[in-house]
Design goal:
It contains nine helices and four strands. It is an alpha+beta fold. A four-stranded mixed sheet has the order 2-1-3-4. A hairpin with a 5-residue loop joins β3 (235-240) and β4. α3 (92-108) runs antiparallel to α4 (112-142) and α6 packs across α9.
Length: 308
């Protein structure tokens, strides 16, 4: 007789085998997790429980790189290959480089020869600078009409007195001729102590020139303040009749001479007599070295004949 096996082959094929495999793995995982201690079994470890942490693995350090030795390098610079004439006409950048090199060489190696060469080229540099200064003085004296300011801005005591007199006469003349078609707005505010001081100065201005000065309360007439973009007091503003143009004269307390000078400059600017690049140029200075744009209307001096 043949004994029959109690194990029958799985008719569902691979599906049955897969279920058996999953059950086997799950049973194995349960056993391994049961054998492994949990968190609460290992919680009393570490610094708090006076237990040293595991030693960190040693990291192999790269070998130290050798420090390069500092060697003294002598620059190969010398005057041996130069004549005095060559040094005298050497291009300034090349001359400066040679001088610096000789100086460093003399400091590094203070021998008699090195110091002699450095002092020699330094003497040539001094003489060259003196030659340039003398030549500049010669040209400015010969062409004083181009390169000096004495004819319009003298510095001697009599010349300064004459210049100040010319400036004051032109300022007064400009202000007096603009009295009928110009006026000043004086912006003030309640409790402004500086405004009181400036008002006293403006009273002297009115007595001298007879101008109209209209006080404007910044708080009572904010529309005017907004129109002329005034936000601080005291502020003095120049306006012109039948024109939208205006110009600030001063902010804060300023002296009477400063008011007159700035007012004359503003009047000439609004009239078109000056521009931003000639704003401070007086009428008697036009066409001179103090008139920046005047050079554009003169022939180039370097293209003319140069006589020794």
């Amino acid at each position: 007789m043949h004994a029959r096996s109690s194990i029958r082959p799985c008719r569902s094929g691979s599906l049955c085998c897969a279920l058996v495999l999953v059950a086997t793995l799950a049973w194995g995982d349960n056993r391994s997790s049961a054998d492994t201690p949990g968190f609460y079994d290992q919680s009393k470890h570490g610094w708090f429980w006076y237990e040293d942490p595991p030693a960190e693995p040693e990291v192999e350090q790269p070998p130290d790189q050798p420090v390069p030795s500092v060697q003294s390098v002598s620059r190969d610079v010398s005057l041996a290959n130069y004549s005095t004439e060559e040094l005298w006409t050497l291009y300034p950048d090349d001359f400066q480089q040679l001088l610096n090199g000789l100086q460093k060489k003399a400091v590094q190696y203070p021998t008699e020869q090195n110091i002699l060469e450095y002092l020699s080229i330094q003497d040539i540099a001094r003489r060259k600078a003196l030659a340039y200064a003398n030549a500049t003085q010669y040209v400015t004296q010969k062409r004083a009409d181009l390169f000096t300011l004495n004819q319009v801005y003298p510095v001697s005591t009599p010349g300064v007195a004459a210049r100040v007199r010319l400036q004051q006469d032109e300022i007064s003349r400009t202000i007096d001729t603009a009295r009928t078609d110009h006026a000043l707005l004086f912006f003030v505010a309640p409790g402004c102590g500086f405004c009181t001081q400036q008002a006293e100065i403006l009273a002297h201005f009115v007595d001298r020139h007879g101008w109209q000065v209209r006080p404007v309360d910044l708080t009572a007439q904010p529309d005017l303040a907004l129109r002329f973009k005034v936000s601080v007091t005291p502020t003095l503003l120049l306006i012109r009749q039948d024109r939208q143009e205006s110009m600030a004269i001063a902010t804060g307390v300023v002296t009477l001479p400063e008011i007159e000078r700035k007012l004359a400059q503003a009047i000439r600017f609004l009239r078109g007599d000056t521009g931003p690049d000639s704003f401070t140029t007086y009428e008697f200075q036009k066409g001179s070295a103090l008139d920046p744009a005047a050079i554009l209307n003169t022939p180039a001096p370097w293209k003319g004949s140069v006589t020794p």
